[in-house]
Amino acid sequence: MYIVMIASECAPVAKVGGLGDVIYGLSRELEIRGHAVEIILPKYDCMRYDHIHGLHVTYPDLWVPWYNGAIHCSIWFGFVHGRKCFFIEPHSNDKFFNRGNFYGYPDEALRYAFFSKATLEFLSKTNKRPDILHCHDWQTGLVPVLLFEMYKFQGLTNQRVCYTIHNFRHQGVTGTNLLSATGLQRPEYYLHYDRLRDNFNANAINFMKAGIVYSNFVTTVSPQHAWEARHTDQNYGLGHTIDIHQHKFGGILNGLDYQVWNPEIDPLLPSHYGVSTLAKKYENKEKLRERLWLRKEFKPLIAYVGRLDSQKGIHLIRHAIFYALKQGAQFVLLGSSPEKSINDQFWQLKRQLNDNPDCHLEINFNEELSHLIYAGADMIVVPSVYEPCGLTQMIALRYGTVPIVRAVGGLFNTVFDRDHDSRPVHERNGYVFHQDSYGDLESAMHRAIGLWYNYPEEFRDLILNGMRCDYSWNQPGQDYLNIYELIQK
User: Is the dihedral of CA 56, 58, 60, 64 positive or negative?
Assistant: First the structure.
């Protein structure tokens, strides 16, 4: 099968969040299974060019129709750690992708509408005829629209589209003037409620809704989040659209790249370990304490690693720090926020706790340190308000760090409560709480800390249960192949 991934990110060259990891990991898995996979990305000026091998211009003269003229583009090709990637570079005064950052501009919708149009123009002009176009998030929501309404008349007649939503919160809502830029000339047609019109703004179009309506199949990144998208407000206003198209909507859990996240071979760890050499994990705990100036005492070490934003349960993260210290544990936090007010709040907290020998808050992000924290911590808290999939808990399980999570999205699908889950004991791998409340969080943390202190052998069994879980791309890769085959029938 010939598959083209169309996305705004791919790790490690263009990575802002989990989307980049998914593009790389899923593409790699599909290639391992013998399929031809190509990835199409914007050519950002801020990419990690040191991770691209053999970058060169492969198609120098692509003219993309835009408004009443056309924009000249160069198409570059290179290998990103073995993955075949094409990069679209427009030469225009708009400087769509030459701005020093991936996101954060007022013309975001225009930038990615152009990327979507240029992608299809490239496939059409070069006679590339993939079986599947796999589009990701709102940035590529217009691809299936342009394919069905325009490019199927220009040679792209048999392509099928799988559309994956990684986060419903960002949907690409914009004005109708963008339609004429792309050549979709009939605003009254596209503004129909059953097509592109935003569900709550009669004069706006919604890229994500467009992707749902026009794709052959729509996925989100865990089975539980698919249920939440249909039955709760976590669809951010797209519930009715999903209901209409429920026959082609489902959830597939993201995978974790075990080439990158593997404590037995991780080059960023002082000591490697696995299921049969678990004692070596604690050498990493000692190194972590030394690096962060934590005192070396017989205490469990609890961590939080990730963004600091409202989605992640800021109030619960803060509460977890003080509860852990009160219960005789240590706490390490690594993360920062795109919002100044939240960053300021945690900097104030850092100053307040600066002299505490059992606590360290690192208000930034450091990839090397994150690996050491996953390896050195005994437990990790993930108290998210919502979490479409989440990689933190999967990494923690792989590194023998017991997750304490709220039962939402992918957390619900991957962490099973030691005391209350109905699964066999050997499949239980952490602690789960349900309500967005201090009391529920405390209950889960109390049980975890109590087991660590009072029943060390049972805590060790819980660690090993987690390390034996398989959250690689193996099963998700097969799930996506099943969808690809279904929509080609």
Answer: negative
CB 457 within 8 Å of CB 444: no
3-state class (DSSP) for residue 249: strand
Q: Are 243 and 230 in contact (CB under 8 A)?
A: yes
User: Considering only CA atoms, which of 219, 161, 170 is closest in space to residue 389?
Assistant: 219
pLDDT value for 149: 97
Q: Rounded to whole angstroms, how far apart are CA atoms 114 and 421?
A: 48
- CA end-to-end span of the chain, whole Å? 13
H or E stretch at 5 = strand 2-6
Contact 242, 249 (CB under 8 A): yes
Instruction: Report residue 444 CA to chain centroid gap.
Output: 26
Give residue 305's pLDDT: 97
pLDDT of residue 365: 87
Smallest CA-to-CA distance from 174 within 190, 140, 192, 198 is with 198
Beta carbons of 148 and 214 less than 8 angstroms apart:
yes
Longest dimension (CA), the chain: 73
> Mind listing the domains of the chain with CATH numbers?
2-255+474-488 (3.40.50.2000), 275-467 (3.40.50.2000)
Query: What are φ and ψ of residue 315, in 5° steps?
Result: -65, -35
Ranges of beta strands (E only) in 347-465 are 359-362, 379-382, 402-406, 431-433
- How far is the C-alpha of 328 from the C-alpha of 358, rounded, in Å? 9
Ranges of the chain with pLDDT below 50:
none
